[in-house]
Amino acid sequence: MRPVQLMLPVIFRQSRPVLLTFLAYSLVAAFCLPSASAQMGKPDGLYYKSWAIVIGVENYLLAPKIPGAIEDAKAVAQAFRRLGFDEVVELYDKDASARRLQQTLSDFLPRKVGRYDRLVLYFAGHAGVTQDLDGMELGYLVPWDAQMGNVSKSVTFEQLKEFSRRSASKHTLFFLNAAARGWEVSTAQPLSLEGRLSPEDETERRAVQVLTAGDKGESLSQENGRSLFVQVLVNGLSGPADRNKNGWLMASEVGDYVKQQVLERSKGTQHPLFVQLEGEGDTVLIEGRKAAFIMGAEPQSPAERRQAAKMQYEQAFALLQAGKLPEETLERLDKALEYDPTFGDAYVLKSYVRLEVLPNLDDALSAAKLAVQYAPKNPDAQYTLGLIYEKRGQYVEAERAMRESLVVNPNYADVYFSLGILYADEMKDQSKSVEAFTRYLELGGNHARARAAVAQSTPAKP
C-alpha cells in the first residue's frame, strides 16, 4: 500500500496538555448522547445507543446464597463494555430488589431506550417454573428480597415478554444464567442473516431473543469455581462464537456456540436453550465490514486485503477519536497489519497508541521503526519515534527523529514545540529551546510555555 501522509489531529500529536483536554472532551461527549426522544431518522450505524442491564443476586435475603453470582455478572458487564455498549447498568444484591427490577422494566427502560437502540439484559440468580391457571408452564426470576416459589413477588417470564413487546428497542436479547423455561414458544429456528444480499435491510428487522443457561430442573455446572455458562458466554462474545469468521457476531451464533460448548463441557448434563420470542431479525453483537457480511469470508486477493486493512484502520481511528475501547483499537490495528504488513499509517497510529493510550514502550518503538520504514513521507512517523525515544531517555535519538520529521514537513509546528521542551527539560540547551519555541510561535502556535520562554529570552526595551 502506497504510504499516505496522514497529519494526525493535534489531539493525537501533542502528548502534553492538549491530550488532557481531548480526554476531558471525550468524557463530556460520552454522557451527552441523544435521549430516546431525540432519535430522529436512522442512525449512521446499526444502533443509536446500546444498553446492557446486568443483574446479579448472590446474597439473597430469603433464599439460598449463590456463590460467585456477582463476580460472574461483573465479568459479563465487562464483556459488554468491550463490545462498545454505551450504557452498562449493574444491579447487585439489594439493588436487584423486586421493586427495583419492576421499576427498571416498567419505567426506566421504556423511557430511555429508543426504537433504533440495542438492549441486552443479563440475570444471574434463582429461577423457577410454575403453572398458570391454564396449566401452562410459567417461568420466573427471583429478585433479591423474594422467596423461592413466591411468584407474586418475582419477575415472571410473561412480564418479560410483555416488557419486550412494549420496548421500543430494535433488538432485545436476554441472557439468563438460570435453568428455566416457560416461554410458550418453540426453540428458535437457525437464523442465517450472514451471507444475504441486503444485510442493512435484514438487520433492521425486529428481534427479541433469549438464551438460558439450562433447561428446567438442571444443575448448572461450574469450572474452577465459576459458572460454566458465563465462562463460555464471555469467551464467545470475544469472537470465537463467530463461526464463519466474517467479523459479524450475531445472537444466533452466540446461542449455537454456547449450547454446543456447555453441552460438551458439562458432559451432557446441562442444556442451554435459545429462543426467538419475536421478529425475524438477529441481534448484532459485533458489527463487521458490510462486504464481509455479504461474502462471509476473509479477503483473499491482494486488493481485497488492502481494502480490508484500510477499513480496519479507519475503524481503529474512529474509536480513538471517540475515546472508546483502546483494546479494540489496538486489535483492529493489528488486524489491519495482518491484512497488509506494509501499511505504514497503521504502524504510525499503533506507535501512538502504544506510547500514550496503552503504554508499552517496546511495542511502541517497534511499531514506530516500521512506520518510518513503510511511511517515510508521513511526518508523524519520525515525530512519534522521537517522542518514544524521549520517553525512553534517549534524547539524542529523540532530537534526530524530530529533526527528520521536519525534513518531511518543515512547517510542522507541534514538532518545534516538542523540540523546545526536549531542549529545555532534558538536554539543558536554552538557546536551542528558545529557537524551537520561536519557530513554533511563528507558525501559529500559542502555548503559554512557548510564549513565556521566548518573552524571557527577549531583552526588555528601555
What this model shows, in words?
The chain is an alpha/beta fold and 462 residues long. The protein folds into two domains: 127 residues, Serine Threonine Protein Phosphatase 5, Tetratricopeptide repeat (Alpha Horseshoe); 244 residues, Rossmann fold, CATH 3.40.50.1460. 47% of the residues lie in helices and 14% in strands. The chain contains 18 helices and 13 strands. Strands 2-1-3-7-8-12 form a six-stranded mixed β-sheet, sandwiched between helices. A three-stranded antiparallel β-sheet has the order 4-5-6. A two-stranded antiparallel ribbon has the order 9-10. Strand 9 and strand 10 form a beta hairpin. The N terminus is likely disordered.
CATH topology of the largest domain: Rossmann fold
Shape by Cα distribution = elongated
- Percent of residues in helices: 40-55%
Strands side by side in the biggest sheet: 2-1-3-7-8-12
Separate helix tally: 18
Category by helix and strand content? alpha/beta
**Alpha-carbon distance between the two ends:** 60 Å
Which radius of gyration do the C-alpha atoms yield?
A: 27 Å
Largest β sheet strand count, sense and barrel closure: 6 strands, mixed
Q: Uncertain spans, ≥5 residues at pLDDT below 50? A: 1-35, 185-201
Provide the CATH architecture of the largest domain: 3-Layer(aba) Sandwich
Total count of strands: 13
Average pLDDT rating: 83
CATH structural class of the largest domain: Alpha Beta
Number of domain units: 2
Strand content: 5-15%
